[in-house]
Amino acid sequence: MHRRPGLSARLKLTLSYAGFLAVAGALLLAVVWVFLLRYVPDTPKGLLGIAPNRYLLVRTFAPAAAVAMVFLLVFGLVGGWILAGRMLAPLTQITAAARMAGNGSLSHRIRMKGRQDEFRELADAFDTTLEQLESHVAEQQRFAANASHELRTPLAISKTLLDVARKDPTRDRGELFERLRAVNTRAIDLTEALLQLSRSDRGNFTRESVDLSLVAEEAAETLLPLAEQRGITLDVIGTAQTSGSAELLLRMVTNLVQNAIVHNLPAGGTVTVHTEPHGDTSVLRVENTGRRLPPELVPTLTEPFQRGTERVRTDEHAGVGLGLAIVHSIVRAHDGTLDLVPRPAGGLLITVRLPGRPGFGQLP
What we know:
Number of strands: 7
Structural class: alpha+beta
Order of helices and strands: HHHHEHEEHEEHEE
Oligomer: single chain
Strand content: 5-15%
Number of helices: 7
Strand order of the largest sheet: 2-4-5-7-6
């Protein structure tokens, strides 16, 4: 945005300091005149013939007063310029850091020294903003790179299958069509997951009252055939109310339950979905059995396309690595929190805390 050049803040402060001193000096001279000189007799002989008269005092005082006024003005200009420079020095540091950030350098930090004051608070807040912005940009870059890689993979596989079929006309067409269908289905699932993640990140949805326990039961009913196929016992207990998008919350619970079923024991595993009100929040817990997870792996599971070496599946439910990332995004869009804790015996305990519906679960 272009603006016409004007006086700098330092010059404005300098003129303000000098003007303040000049006004203070003028007021002091006015006080001397009002309370001293006006009471001196203006007679040729002065007061009782021994004191000087008003005319002599004015002639003697006026030059000295003029010199003092000039001195105050010069002192105000010089001192104000130096003082304004020292006061605005932290602002200069912040401006330089902002320009570097505008040019794409987000790694620079001000790290202002000195005691805590308004400029120090502003610099610390700016450093925190830069740190969050740098982390967000790095996350988006990783996401774009991973998304490009994930989308390119099924396309490359399809191209390879078609090239092989063209070079070998005798190849079984049925097998080719099935493999192409599987690859295409995976690409569609990935695209839909990316769109779902983008929508939940924007948070532009209408909030309504949602029965979280009914959402959990619906998700469990949808995934019950998958649980029975794998020999997993699926239980849903409790009741809770929240507000938000019923569609997004259903996607969140479905992803959590599917994740708990797929990453479980080969047989005889369990998945428990528990909902309950807790104060002014509604709590959803999804707990499953399974392999023991390294503690350092758990915090990375909500990152897009992060599956972990021990969690990669090669069957029809391999997923696209966005399940928990979508869950995390939906939870943030609903002003909630998501906690992942590895169970000592194996498996994972996932706790989602969402704002509860006012008055629900409270005694009258």
